[in-house]
Amino acid sequence: MDIHGADPFGFDTVDLSSLRQLRSMKWRAYPPDVLPAWVAEMDLGTAPAVVSALSEAVARQDFGYAVDLQAPELTEAFCGFAARRFSWPVDPARVFLLRDVMRGLELWIEGFTRPGDGVVVTTPVYYPFLHAITEAGRVPVQVPAVCTSDRWELDLERLEATFAAGNTLLLLCNPHNPVGRAYTRSELTALAELTVRHDVRVVADEIHAPLVYAPAVHVPFVSLGAEVASRTLTLHSASKAFNLAGLHAAVAVVGSAADGSHLESISYRRRGAAGILGIEASVAAFTYGDEWLDALLVHLAGVRDHLGAELAARVPGVSWFSPEATYLAWLDCSGLGLGPSPQSVFLEEGRVAFSDGVAFGDGGAGFVRLNFGTSRAILSELVSRMVAAL
Ligand SMILES: Cc1ncc(COP(=O)(O)O)c(C=O)c1O
């Protein structure tokens, strides 16, 4: 490995036939002639330090139950990562181990709203947010993002109206999957003021925070002041940036000692347990993964720009805003005349699998989400299949 080379980790040389051997949902959900670019996992492997940590755990045959709620090595690794990458000093006493990010979100919906209550989401949004709300018997209160001339923005006026109407929980996705925004300090400050004024709790899902492209930066919502911090549950995981989605370990940073006690009061079985392999992988990623992550960000920004050039040249009817964060592109296909679910046309006619925009809630019709966490060659093939479908 030449760490000074142009592609030190071989991201552009991943091989499709090896990818097709993978057991993951991404590669198993569709027949083998379909090229998958839907669920949020990358084709780019993980950091070498993670592979070593996992190999050591496998060699130890360390397959028992993981520790519950407190994993000191993970807490230390995460606090170091948050300080280095987000200039965020995290109090280790506020850090808890969870099985995954979505479970944290569900526990807060169950714990801090009642059946029938509204829960506010900024759509289009990672669709399990919507499922988590309805499955808990609550009602999604959808506030669609506003499309300006150069980016998606939060609709602060409508958000305030939903808070004023008595909805007391906001699920914030920042960076925002699927629209690719890393909200700025001033946007988040304006939102934070509203949550304080209307006494709204916030779950800040910041799982994509390590995947922000310069010059954008990740601003942790809790960093906006003590009043904001005390009402916010922040959720993180190494799983998106380091490609570990099946290993099950996430980090919750609670806003107060009382919220920590709330988490502890929920039974082990209801909380769901993290896995040892997930914890070991996350510790390695957060501690030793920076060099790989930096190279990944360079690669992904390059593929993102390659996608922009390919779309402009070959599928000009598609419009999009180049994302500031995530390896997900939110493509407006309404100009192609393919109806509300262009995903099905691309799948049937082009044998390429994107995520259907409709699933992401209000504002999603006519869109697809394309996962560009891959090589330039595979990206070009994805676009070729779009062209073939048309
Ligand atoms: C915004 C967001 N939150 C949560 C998740 C899932 O995280 P977990 O598997 O830890 O529940 C994803 C996965 O794509 C995501 O994009």
Report on this model:
- This protein has helices spanning 16-19, 25-28, 48-60, 72-86, 101-112, 128-135, 156-164, 185-197, 226-230, 257-265, 268-271, 276-288, 290-314, 342-350, 376-389; strands at residues 35-36, 95-98, 118-121, 139-142, 146-147, 152-153, 169-173, 201-205, 232-236, 250-253, 328-332, 352-353, 355-356, 367-371.
- The chain folds into 2 domains: 11-46 and 290-389, Aspartate Aminotransferase, domain 1; 57-288, Aspartate Aminotransferase, domain 2 (3-Layer(aba) Sandwich).
- Helix 3 packs antiparallel against helix 12 (276-288).
- It is of the alpha/beta class.
- The strands form 4 sheets. A 7-stranded mixed beta sheet has the order 2-10-9-8-7-3-4, with helices on both faces. It has a 3-stranded antiparallel beta sheet with strand order 11-14-13, covered by helices on one side. Strands 1-12 form a two-stranded parallel ribbon.
- It has 15 helices and 14 strands.
- The model has no long low-confidence stretch (mean pLDDT 97).
- The two termini are 41 Å apart.
- Helices cover 40% and strands 13% of the residues.
What strand order characterises the main sheet?
2-10-9-8-7-3-4
Range of helix content: 40-55%
Report low-confidence residues grouped into runs of 5 or more. none
Radius of gyration: 20 Å
Ligands (ions, cofactors included)? pyridoxal-5'-phosphate
CATH class of the largest domain: Alpha Beta
**Measured distance between first and last alpha carbons:** 41 Å
Task: Tally the structural domains.
Answer: 2
CATH architecture of the largest domain: 3-Layer(aba) Sandwich
Structural class: alpha/beta
CATH overall fold name of the largest domain: Aspartate Aminotransferase, domain 2
Helix count?
15
> What is the average per-residue confidence, as pLDDT, rounded to a whole number?
97
Shape summary: globular
The CATH homologous superfamily of the largest domain: Type I PLP-dependent aspartate aminotransferase-like (Major domain)
Query: What is the H/E order?
Result: HHEHHEHEHEEEHEHEHEEHHHHEHEEEH
β-strand percent reads 5-15%
Main beta-sheet annotation: 7 strands, mixed
The oligomeric state of the chains shown is single chain
Q: Based on DSSP secondary structure assignment, what is the total number of beta strands?
A: 14
